[in-house]
Prior knowledge:
Blueprint (H helix, E strand, L loop, with lengths): L5 E6 L6 H13 L2 E7 L10 H11 L6 E6 L3 H8 L3 E6 L5 H14 L4 E6 L9 H9 L10 H11 L2
Parallel strand pairs: 1-2, 1-4, 2-3, 4-5
The site of 4'-phosphopantetheine (PNS) has 12 residues, from strand 1 and helix 4.
Amino acid sequence: MSKEIIAICPGSFDPVTYGHLDIITRASNMFGKVIVIVAGNLSKNCSFSPEERVEMIKKCIPNLDNVEVVHYSGLLADYAAEVGATAIIKGLRAMSDFEYEFQMALTNKKLNPNVETLFLTTKAENMYLSSSMVKQIALMGGDISSFVPEVIKQDIIDRIKK
Ligand code: PNS
């Protein structure tokens, strides 16, 4: 992949999990610059504020020098145009993700023809990992250590149990 390309890695990240972090890390190895965007999703009621989500992601990736983490509440296609990003990187888990991701990829292409959506296949162990599952386990007092890094574990427990 070209190190000249600016890629964006959008999501709700409510909260970020090992699944997201794997995709972000792999993207950072492929592109010159990766901008992780904590974006708005109208169909989700998030548990963490955008600022909290940005901070949690930053805490998890202190060594990824070419990765920036931002919050953006507008259209992804517009953000890509603003910063000159030409790739949107998304992780694909089970087939159940496909329909939704395909729809977003086609919409973003229509809104900004200069941007390509690229899918990275999730690692097998993250196939069924989701932020909502992490929140549910935390709420019921379960151990979330295998799903999120230690450095944000307590932040998640504190917020979910409030
Ligand atoms: O982690 P998610 O919730 O599946 O990510 C979805 C997200 C945030 C990437 C998507 O809702 C999005 O792109 N939101 C920004 C607004 C936008 O551009 N909407 C049109 C995309 S089709």
